[in-house]
Amino acid sequence: MNKNNLSFSTWISNNIKNINDNLEKILQNHQDAKLSVLQEAMKYSTLSDGKRIRALLVHASFLAAHGCLMEKDDVLLSIDKAAIAIELIHSYSLIHDDLPVMDNDCMRRGKPSNHIVFGEAIAILAGDSLQSLAFELITCIPISYEIRINLIKNLAESAGYLGMAGGQAIDLTNMGNNISYEELKNMHSMKTGAIIACSIKFGYILAGANQVVKCILDEFAYHLGIIFQIVDDILDVTSDDKQLGKTAGKDSKYNKPTYVSMFGVMKSRKMLEKLRDKAINIIKPLGLSNNRLLEMLDLIIYRNY
Amino acid sequence: MNKNNLSFSTWISNNIKNINDNLEKILQNHQDAKLSVLQEAMKYSTLSDGKRIRALLVHASFLAAHGCLMEKDDVLLSIDKAAIAIELIHSYSLIHDDLPVMDNDCMRRGKPSNHIVFGEAIAILAGDSLQSLAFELITCIPISYEIRINLIKNLAESAGYLGMAGGQAIDLTNMGNNISYEELKNMHSMKTGAIIACSIKFGYILAGANQVVKCILDEFAYHLGIIFQIVDDILDVTSDDKQLGKTAGKDSKYNKPTYVSMFGVMKSRKMLEKLRDKAINIIKPLGLSNNRLLEMLDLIIYRNY
Q1: What is the mean pLDDT of residues B161-173?
Q2: For the segment A144-165, what is each residue's pLDDT rounded down to a tens digit?
Q3: Which string of DSSP letters, residue by residue, matches A254-283?
Q4: Strand residue runs (E) in B41-157
Q5: What is the second-level CATH architecture of the domain A7-301?
Q6: Which of A99, A140, A170 sits opposite B34 (nearest CB)?
Q7: Which positions of chain A have pLDDT values less than 50?
Q8: Interchain contact, A161 vs B42, CB within 8 Å
Q9: Confidence bin at B70 (pLDDT 50/70/90)
Q10: For chain A, what are the domain ranges?
Q11: Which of A69, A107, A254, B122 has the fewest C-beta atoms lying within 10 Å of its C-beta?
């Protein structure tokens, strides 16, 4: 049976198992008694029960860009490592975002946040180390040096001040402020969208996609980033701590501008539907049947945590 | 006049000006009003009055490895960018180390620490962004992709949990504990030594050094790292805040194991002399006359801040 013909749920669970195994392997490297606390902190957050959406997007984008897997082990290894690098960056960002001086959340992925368990100093260092490890990991991907540099450049830009970290800074500055819809979209395209877009880029870079496919997938990724954030904002008001695995209702508590605070839940849901149609239209030229990215789109929209 | 025949002090001041100009240029890129606070925070610490020892070591190591500059602009550009990447990592580490939950220092380089001016959240994000920027910068070095990957791999390893960040974690865990001399040396070889060793590696990688030269310079770098730390420990007890540009006497206040707490100032100075002789012997095969690394060794030993 062709792996691509697997049901979506089997594809997801196979991939999540693979992603978790690979994360565990990379974080078990160089175990050192002196470093046990730091290494435990890095593992605690990274190996916890994450949705692995970003890593899955790398795989899905690779397939949507008609990347050919077949028996090429090196390609498969490359996708695995690239996907894990993204998860390491995501894990670092969650640890730092949860700190008391940032979003101050004491729960994450259904467990006490990193700094609650290991203290703030080790939490900061665990985040710092996960960021370094992500870049180190990409240097070892069994693919041309040029492609490795391309991946690192994209990830560094997406994680840095013009991407994720910059978005988080704007988010903190915006607390309690009235901002425009454009400002809200821009902030989220950096804070959440940049790494999601990078995941899609990773997939098509590894697939060796042509310029047209890249443009289609970049456009799709931009919309997917907005969709992801709107769902996040809706879940923050419609879900509870247990379902989310983190503190619900935090956006309004901190008076954060969100899609829900700006448009309400009903209108945000309507926006979601429109954006879903748009995203599907964008990706249509790549084929809609058996398209893992399309399935990922619905997974992101209809998730409940 | 051959640039290598410049007096050491002229070489230093020319290079520091060049390093500062390049840091300014890279941090002025993509100025964005929305990001002004974060960008100011990144500039505030990085463009402050640093000694630039790590960046200078990249240049000095390149020359000691008989790297040839001549008119090859790209080589010069490559050294500049590589040296600046190291300074960005160093700057990020200082910002995070100074945080209240870490070493809690409210002064750095003669000015209030980053978190005192910008708040802890922005300070953390500025450090995070500087780390990403360092790797992004190396991806743009005008040298082969293979060498860029080699630089990134070395920097990521040196900055991460088996290097600088790991050393800082061990340092925090050690506070108030009795540790052995071996443990002290190991901790410092990670916390301070790893990035110093990486600076030397950057120089010889860019010079295309052979295996023998690499071994000599690695061995020299290991000793230089220890020397750097002993001087730091001595200055902490013999200098004042104004001279150091940061809070003096902090090691004993926090009951940190240091060379001075273990051996006292006099014996630490004697160790320094012996290590200096050893370092000179190690590097002798590369030639002692007009050797910038040797001059850097004495600059590091005889500095007063």
Answers
A1: 95
A2: 999 999 999 999 999 999 999 9
A3: TT---HHHHHHHHHHHHHHHHHHHHHHHHH
A4: 107-108, 111-112
A5: Orthogonal Bundle (1.10)
A6: A170
A7: 1-2
A8: yes
A9: low
A10: 7-301
A11: A254
Most A-contacting residue of B29, B44, B122, B136 (CB-CB within 10 A), to test interface: B136
pLDDT digits (tens, 9 = 90+) for B275-284: 999 999 999 9
Rg of chain B (C-alpha set):
19
**Cα–chain center distance at B102:** 19
The residue to which tokens 């990001």 are assigned: B35
Cβ(B57)–Cβ(B79) below 8 Å: no
Q: Are B205 and B147 in contact (CB under 8 A)?
A: yes
What ipTM does this complex have? 0.96
- B9-301: CATH architecture: Orthogonal Bundle (1.10)
Cβ-nearest to B124 among A35, A38, A101? A101
* Location of structure tokens 């506070």: B175
Q: Are strands B107-108 and A111-112 parallel, antiparallel or unpaired?
A: unpaired
Per the structure block, which two tokens stand in for B174?
Answer: 């050690």
Q: Decide if B102 contacts A121 (C-beta within 8 A).
A: yes
Mutate one of B96, B135, B154, B175 to test the A interface: name it (highest A CB count within 10 A).
Answer: B135
Which residue reads 């821009």 in tokens? Answer: A186
Mark yes or no for CB contact B156/A132 under 8 Å: yes
Residue type for A173, please?
A: T
Q: Average pLDDT for residues B265-270, to the nearest whole number?
A: 97
CB contact under 8 A, A132 and B161: yes
